[in-house]
């Protein structure tokens, strides 16, 4: 299958390589001339054969909306656009409606896997019409992890469902990370514990708290046993906020996710071992910037 891919950043670049490795042709566009295969969106569209499929991986919000609007002017009836970024699910209805006027199909896809997805595959949650999902399935199969499709891919529902599912996924992620981080701080504070990294590493096999996130915390502790090379300053991408907003809208109690979000806000006012652990986890799975310890430390990226 042939695919256009807009945005070759931390995830987009690796996604292009994984899809190509599966035997598909990918034409990528990015503002960085060293990464791109096309010089503009118009050039990208011209290099694709109809009916075209174009996957958008740019920052959520106005950059995504502008990119999709421009693609709407360049693509033809029967083409399809997939938004694989972290857009708010409410944006999908507007994007889909605008493209539908030109008879261009639209899918939204929540993508999880971070900087490790190239080798491990990406968890995919898709929203849109079933026939459009099936049309792009070769690309989804190339991106998802090896094994049964249903263990790494879900057609979650109509347009918006994919990003909604990813939003909740990220809210859960906030809570899991915070629990590991608070446990780390308790171990650090307990005088009876002499080797915190060894205890955390021992949880990797046989325990009920083992997980990939735990493995990444062990990885971070291997290189920095007390995590004191960075500040406990933790950014948030917005999806945790949206999850809490939805919990309020639906009157669903979500105290763990809400507390984890507020802990990130607090991290910008103090510096604790727990929030250093959360910061290190975000860096491990997503390549997100961290704030180094020391008086000269600068602000890190607020994306992700």
UniProtKB/TrEMBL annotation:
Domain 6-phosphogluconate dehydrogenase C-terminal: 162-295
Keywords: Gluconate utilization, Oxidoreductase
SUPFAM superfamilies given in the database record: 6-phosphogluconate dehydrogenase C-terminal domain-like, NAD(P)-binding Rossmann-fold domains
Coiled coil: none
GO molecular function per UniProt: NADP binding; phosphogluconate dehydrogenase (decarboxylating) activity
Gene Ontology terms describing biological process: D-gluconate metabolic process; pentose-phosphate shunt
Record carries keyword Oxidoreductase: yes
Domain of life: Bacteria
The family this protein is said to belong to: Belongs to the 6-phosphogluconate dehydrogenase family.
Protein name: 6-phosphogluconate dehydrogenase (Decarboxylating)
Organism (species): Actinophytocola oryzae
